[in-house]
């Protein structure tokens, strides 16, 4: 059994789109023209976006920001993710998903890869968006503090 977390991506035009918004996969396997499998090492953070529609419009919009687990660690199950991941953020509904995508863009505009941002930030975003508050923006100072804490702990 592999220690990697795998995510199956599927794209069926105008029907289903499962994609990675950010993250650093260590491998990619192409199944066919519509499906790929990406693998992530334990501890890596990635955003998984799912969208589904039918003849009447969108029926599902969801974003999960997950940390790939280490063997023996507790995890949340997420469709298309094996075995699952530590859930840092899980939101459904287009307005909330769109807001998270905007926040990801804002982190990237700072020149910071969202996969390297403090995991606590994604928890903060989740808690604030769940009660319709505006989360504090991620800043370079906050990122530097996270990097210093990480160096001290690891």
From TrEMBL:
Name listed for the protein in its UniProt record: DUF2840 domain-containing protein
Organism: Bradyrhizobium rifense
């Amino acid at each position: 059994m592999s220690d990697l977390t795998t995510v199956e991506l599927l794209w069926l035009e105008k029907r289903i789109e499962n994609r990675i918004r950010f993250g650093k996969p260590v491998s990619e396997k192409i199944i066919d023209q519509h499906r790929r499998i990406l693998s992530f090492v334990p501890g890596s953070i990635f955003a998984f976006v799912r969208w589904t529609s039918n003849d009447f419009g969108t029926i599902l919009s969801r974003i999960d920001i997950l940390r790939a687990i280490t063997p023996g660690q507790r995890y949340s199950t997420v469709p298309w993710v094996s075995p699952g991941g530590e859930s840092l953020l899980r939101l459904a509904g287009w307005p909330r998903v769109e807001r998270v995508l905007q926040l990801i863009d804002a982190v990237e505009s700072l020149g910071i890869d969202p996969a390297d941002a403090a995991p606590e930030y994604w928890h903060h975003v989740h808690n604030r968006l769940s009660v319709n508050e505006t989360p504090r923006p991620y800043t370079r100072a906050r990122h530097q503090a996270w990097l210093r804490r990480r160096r001290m702990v690891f």
